[in-house]
Write the structure tokens for this entry.
Amino acid sequence: MHVKKDDLVEVISGDDAAKGRAQKVLRVITSKNRVVIEGVNRVYKHVKPNKLNPQGGRLSVEAPIDVSNVLLFCPNCKKGIRYTRKIAADGRKFRECKKCKSDLGTISKAK
């Protein structure tokens, strides 16, 4: 999967698509190829009154969207980009923006 938890992504299709707007990945569901993004695809969950929520009512929660609808966000380019995986001299694997060649975070530590 091309994104991981706490990455900044840009939603490129659907109702919540917005060019140049970065949002944080809250959860990755690898078995279903889906991601949950902060503030995207909000749905209402109806809850009966219980100890945690004595009033009950409607809770607004984020629902998962398909991972193909998001691009990794480059802070230098200020947009969603494609990236390449590289190996640094110290042995760590990292992601690099194809346009501006900036480091987008480590994939795995050096061995």
